[in-house]
Write a structure and sequence with these properties.
The chain is an alpha/beta fold and about 375 residues long. It has two domains: about 140 residues, Arc Repressor Mutant, subunit A; about 190 residues, 3-Layer(aba) Sandwich (Rossmann fold).
Amino acid sequence: MSTWTNRIDHLRLIRTDSVGPITYRRLLDRYHTPAAALDALPRLVRAGGKTTTPAIPPAPEAERELERTDAAGGRMIFLGDDDYPPLLAMMDDAPPCLIVGGDAGLAQQRCVATVGGRNASANGQRMAETLAADLAASVVVVSGLARGIDTAAHQGAMRAGRTIAVVAGGIDQPYPPENADLHRRIAATHLLVTEAPVGTVPQARHFPRRNRIIAGLSLGVVVVEAALRSGSLITARLAQEAGREVFAVPGSPLDPRARGGNDLIRQGAIMVETAADVLDNLPPEPSARRPRRSGLEEPEQASLEGFRGAEDGPDARAQVLALLSPEPTMVDDLVRHCHLSPSVTMAVLLELELAGRVETLAGSRVALLPDAIE
């Protein structure tokens, strides 16, 4: 199989309904190649209780997406490629495909995220810009190209070093509109990163997914100014769950924009007044970790021995469904309470997810989707 054909098959699998980042990895763990996984999908979906055929994009559609990406000045990096960001690859739900514009090598370097609220105060923006400029002399500064703190962080980093902007929409869709010039400059001489296809207009549901990429690229996340229940706190939580350091700049207790950062400090985040507070507390560069097999390289003969699936029958699926609820359940707990072998339980979960009945979440958790509740 040629590399081009293999990448087309990867993109078709990634863009298939019900195939999220975690399911994508599980399919490749089972089948080793995207072509074999694509061939198995109809059977797996039927075994999960869905009668309709999965909507698998045809090869010409995937080819057109690659061509549109190239025309927009971007390129695709697949999980398992040599230039896929190594820290991001450690995340359970790492994007199977990134679309990047600019210098992809920046994501191989030590990175620190600087994030905060959109309606930031003047002092907050000045702090973010100064902090990012000081950090950029030693590390690459990552942020989300939003209004307020993110914009200030990118501008500060670009004065003294390099920056990575992680966006929620396509690389050809600057957002917010007033950052269109900043978007272009970062894509030209720094690095722009997204998992959204070219042409995707940012929507609210895209931003939490963007936040996990910000956290995943970084050794640590600095929150400069954030309200309670803000997107920046989501980024901080994702970073903590991934074993990254969390930092926060303290603010006035009278300003609701500072309450999120102050609360992080109460919970154990490292208080930041200067860049030295961040740099002195960053963990050493992680030791090399081999990414999970992506199938992009020429595979060995795929072995499906031990994979059961549909022949495990409805009783196995009924057992698994009976133990699940909309509240996320640890997969280890599910395996422990099922009267099934771990391999059969995992096979059933894969079928149910592809049939749209359950959702696999980061942290080895699984939840029943509302439509599957009987």
